[in-house]
Amino acid sequence: MDTRLLRNRPPYTLDRETAPAMWLVGTLWQIQATGIQTNNRCSFLEQVMPGGLGPPTHRHPLSIEGFYVVEGTMNFHVDGKIIRAEAGTLVHLPRMIPHTFTVTSEETRVLNWYAPAGNEIQVISLARPAEERRRPTMEEGPAPKSDEFNQIVSRLYGSVAVTALPFSVPPSEELLVTQPGVWCAGTLKIARAKDGPLFEAFGLTWRLLAAGSDTEDEYDLFEVVAAPQAGMPPRILGADEAIYVLEGSISLESNGEATTAKVGAFSYVPAGTMLRWQASEDARLLAFHFPGGFDRALAGSRGQDALAAAWLEARGTRFLEALPLDTKGLDGSTPEGVLPATAAPALSCERNSS
Fold first, then answer.
1. Is the pLDDT of residue 346 over 50?
2. What domains, with CATH codes, occur in the chain?
3. What is the pTM of this model?
């Protein structure tokens, strides 16, 4: 189905061999989505960082920032606490919260995003094209030579120093300090997929990492487990979707064009696109929806795909195949085999009385 009249941005898939790659401060940055591709809704970068690395404490007044640890371990310094984040951990940072991190393993790979987009331009402005697709040494990927230029792009694209600007000075313990109770515009959320609320829908297992209510409805995020041949049915999207493959591989069809996404592949599919995807083998992936709301569809579906689809269709999605509705279990009881959703814990940023 050709849906070009319904959208103004094409869907695409990038992987670790095709995403634009850059070097900066000893880190390999792979640019997976910029505001140009997402209509400024969000941006995505994959980072491969060496042990010990970390920026000075800073904040973002314009964007929410998120991290998902793919490999390795990190310590996040936020709200006066040090939070250990191992593989499978989400760290959601609301606007204005002072934060920083240190890499505690020999090497760490993270998926990093901003909503709305903008901060990725700071990285692109300061970095240089990677000569190879590997993590550089600090000499190969140095800090920016001009602190004045760093200050300019930081101001333009939404990084504000608390102890110092990112990329401006070498990491040190005294620059990693955060204070508890500092006001921020939202909720700090730390989540691990193994602990998240569980949903079974569309033949898939969905673990909720971030609900729309956690992110000012900028996005929601699930870790999805799919058996071979399982996947999402064809539909015209009512919201933008992003998929990042953690394990296995999936086949995607968008507007009649098929592609295979393997480990490390990132797909962005804007609203108005016809999309279906199916696991080629046992697969595990991250599924984002911009804006949030898919979590409410699953929470209200009572284990029935038809009810989840109806909720989504009321908000613009169009499923191309009818889904059967089983009226058993709609009398107020929980259907057999359906797990009731539980609220994921969150840490609130309280307004500083001072």
1. no
2. 4-190 (2.60.120.10), 196-325 (2.60.120.10)
3. 0.90
